[in-house]
């Protein structure tokens, strides 16, 4: 006998959280050495941890690398402030803080099973929704990137999946839902602005569906846009005042572009052209300051691409392959730094093949439902193809990928009937159209 939806989702959440907390308990012990070092924090915290350290020390949102420097916008604001809050409660660079942060990540990752279930159920049969939620609970990458990494991956995945759930039926909702979507997407952008590339498409689909249903889309869409801007604008103003430069959330694109397009293709080399791992670049960053340093990297990178277009094209194709498969090189020198790359590539190839199969199958059955998923896998990775890529950058759309893998492995079946809630919303659309 099939258990009820609340019972199923509770069981999935508990199982997912238990698996992640086991990993957290193991990883926290590995963080002991770093916890005793006042200049570092955690395992793979890098810019997030260093910026949080600066906030804790009363220096504001600054110093994204080990040396104490000036204000920064290399990382988005929400997660460093969350880490800094944990530091305030549990101490700077303590094992208690490490355990709390990784536990928070684990809770966010486990909770993602819930919106993922509803995201899938809106377009596919109940069976597919349950498989997708259960798959996320035991998915190795969702476990690793939440329980073993001090970064925003799990938090952003949870927020973005909730955005997708809301976007699915946005055209049939009232104005408060549209405003809520704008607010939620703004918060998600302040967690990781990489998801903003999909906002015009998700919003455009909702507007088109509302227009097709003769709903007053403009009177709802405008407040949603203003809500998104209202959430993000204070941070943009802060950046202008602190760094005397105007940009959206973060300013590091040209640094990342230069790091991936300067002739060095190793990416595991300790001398990789990035201040976080290259002492010479760090000294240059300190000397020039963040804005001038990034401007210099922009000029160098653009000049390099102009004179080496073939290198840029080949490197971009390699980055595209790496984004989806994890493959960069099987040379002994590279595998010395990445010894698990071979089994990882095989697993990723399995996932990608069924993702493509699922997307193709779903597109044939229901283009309207599959369109947001297609746009996500086509549009979201584009900046990483141009700069540098690794599997961790894929995490915000990893739940989407799992839905497509589920369809590829088990099929989607016919599109499920709308739930009673959705049907009621559709019934309300006629009066709304009349008022429009």
What this model shows, in words?
The structure is a single chain. Helix 1 (5-30) packs parallel to helix 7, helix 1 (5-30) packs across helix 8 and helix 6 runs antiparallel to helix 7 (126-138). It contains 22 helices and no strands. The protein is globular and about 60 Å long. The termini are far apart. It has one domain (5-435). It has 436 residues and is mostly helical. Mean pLDDT is 89; it is low at 416-436.
State the low-pLDDT regions, or none.
Answer: 416-436
Mean pLDDT: 89
What is the terminal separation in angstroms? Answer: 47 Å
Number of domains: 1
Strand count = 0
State the major sheet. none
Estimated share of beta-strand residues: under 5%
Helix-strand pattern: HHHHHHHHHHHHHHHHHHHHHH
Count of helical regions: 22
Classify the helix fraction into a percent range. over 70%
**Rg, Cα atoms, Å:** 22 Å
Overall morphology: globular
**Class based on secondary structure composition and strand pairing:** mainly alpha
Q: Any descriptors?
A:
single chain; 436 residues; mainly alpha; 22 helices; 70% helix; disordered C terminus
Task: Give the SSE layout.
Elements: H1 5-30, H2 32-35, H3 46-56, H4 78-90, H5 95-111, H6 113-121, H7 126-138, H8 140-147, H9 153-168, H10 175-191, H11 199-212, H12 217-243, H13 253-260, H14 279-288, H15 290-307, H16 309-325, H17 332-337, H18 341-365, H19 367-379, H20 382-386, H21 398-410, H22 420-435
Helix pairs in contact: 1-5, 1-7, 1-8, 3-4, 4-5, 5-8, 5-9, 6-7, 6-9, 7-21, 9-10, 10-12, 13-15, 14-15, 15-16, 18-19, 18-21
């Amino acid at each position: 006998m099939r258990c009820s939806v609340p019972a199923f989702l509770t069981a999935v959440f508990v199982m997912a959280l238990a698996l992640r907390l086991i990993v957290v308990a193991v990883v926290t012990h590995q963080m002991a050495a770093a916890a005793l070092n006042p200049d570092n924090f955690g395992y793979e915290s890098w810019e997030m941890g260093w910026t949080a350290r600066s906030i804790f020390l009363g220096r504001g949102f600054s110093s994204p690398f080990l040396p104490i420097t000036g204000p920064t916008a290399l990382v988005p604001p929400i997660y460093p402030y969350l880490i800094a809050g944990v530091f305030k409660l549990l101490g700077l660079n303590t094992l208690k803080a490490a355990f709390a942060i990784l536990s928070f990540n684990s809770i966010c990752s486990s909770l993602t099973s819930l919106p993922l279930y509803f995201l899938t159920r809106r377009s596919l049969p109940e069976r597919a929704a349950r498989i997708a939620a259960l798959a996320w609970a035991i998915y190795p990458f969702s476990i690793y990137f939440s329980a073993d990494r001090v970064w925003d991956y799990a938090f952003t995945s949870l927020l973005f999946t909730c955005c997708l759930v809301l976007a699915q039926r946005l055209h049939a909702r009232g104005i408060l839902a549209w405003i809520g979507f704008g607010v939620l997407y703004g918060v998600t952008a302040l967690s990781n602005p990489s998801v903003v590339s999909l906002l015009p498409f998700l919003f455009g689909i909702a507007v088109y569906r509302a227009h097709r249903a003769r709903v007053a889309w403009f009177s709802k869409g405008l407040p949603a846009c203003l809500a998104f801007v209202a959430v993000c604008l204070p941070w943009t103003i802060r950046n202008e005042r602190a760094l005397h430069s105007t940009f959206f959330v973060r300013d590091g694109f040209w640094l990342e572009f230069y790091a991936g397009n300067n002739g060095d293709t190793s990416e595991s080399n300790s001398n990789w052209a990035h201040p976080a791992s290259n002492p010479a670049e760090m000294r240059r960053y300190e000397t020039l300051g963040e804005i001038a340093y990034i401007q210099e990297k922009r000029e160098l990178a653009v000049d390099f691409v102009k004179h080496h277009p073939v290198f840029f094209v080949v490197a971009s194709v390699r980055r595209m392959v790496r984004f989806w498969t994890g493959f960069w090189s099987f040379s002994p020198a590279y595998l010395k730094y990445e010894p698990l790359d071979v089994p990882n590539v095989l697993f990723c190839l399995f996932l990608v093949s069924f993702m493509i199969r699922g997307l193709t199958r779903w597109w044939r059955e229901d283009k309207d439902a599959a369109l947001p998923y297609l746009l996500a896998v086509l549009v979201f990775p584009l900046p990483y193809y141009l700069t540098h890529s690794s599997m961790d950058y894929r995490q915000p759309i990893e739940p989407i990928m799992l839905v497509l893998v589920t369809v590829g492995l088990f099929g989607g079946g016919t599109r499920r009937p709308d739930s009673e809630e959705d049907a009621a919303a559709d019934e309300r659309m006629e009066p709304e159209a009349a008022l429009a």
